[in-house]
Design goal:
By secondary structure, the chain is an alpha+beta fold. The protein has 2 domains: 43 residues, no CATH class; 58 residues, no CATH class. 22% of the residues lie in helices and 23% in strands. The chain contains 2 helices and 6 strands, in the order H-H-E-E-E-E-E-E. A 6-stranded antiparallel β-sheet has the order 4-3-2-1-5-6, with no helix packed on it. A hairpin with a 3-residue loop joins strand 3 and strand 4. Helix 1 packs across helix 2. The protein is elongated and about 50 Å long.
C-alpha cells in the first residue's frame, strides 16, 4: 500500500477510536499514543506487514459498459459471491460490477498486464 493510502487508512481507523491526529510541523503525530498506534499500523499494513500471498487483482471498466462514465482508471478489486445476477466484481467507484463490464489486470513491474 503506498504511503498516502496507508496514512488515509490509518486516519479512517484512528478517528472512530478517539486518537488525536494533531501533527507536528514535520508530519509526525504530536501525541505519543497516536504515534505508537501509527507505528503499529504501519508495521502491520506497510511493506513488511501481513499481506495475502499473490498479486492484487485490478479491473478497468470496458468502454462498452454502461458504467464506462465512472472512470477510465484501474482500481483494485476482489471477486466474490454475487448479491444478484453475476455482479461478482467487488471494488471501484460503483462498488460492484458484472464480469461483462470489466477487464482484469495485474501489475508487473508497476505496469498493468491484462488478463485474458
Amino acid at each position: 500500500m503506498e504511503k498516502a493510502n496507508l496514512q488515509l487508512a490509518f486516519k479512517a481507523w484512528a478517528v472512530p477510536r478517539g486518537y488525536d491526529l494533531t501533527e507536528t510541523c514535520y508530519g509526525d503525530f504530536l501525541h505519543l499514543e497516536t504515534r505508537s498506534a501509527w507505528l503499529g499500523f504501519e508495521a502491520a499494513h506497510g511493506e513488511a506487514g501481513c499481506r495475502p500471498a499473490g498479486q492484487q487483482l485490478y479491473a478497468r471498466i470496458k468502454k462498452t459498459s454502461k458504467y464506462a462514465h465512472q472512470t477510465d482508471k484501474l482500481f483494485p478489486v476482489r471477486v466474490g459471491k454475487a448479491p444478484y445476477d453475476n455482479f461478482v466484481v467487488h471494488g471501484g467507484p460503483g462498488g460492484l460490477y458484472a464480469l461483462r463490464d470489466v477487464s482484469f489486470y495485474v501489475l508487473v513491474d508497476d505496469k498493468p498486464m491484462r488478463l485474458t
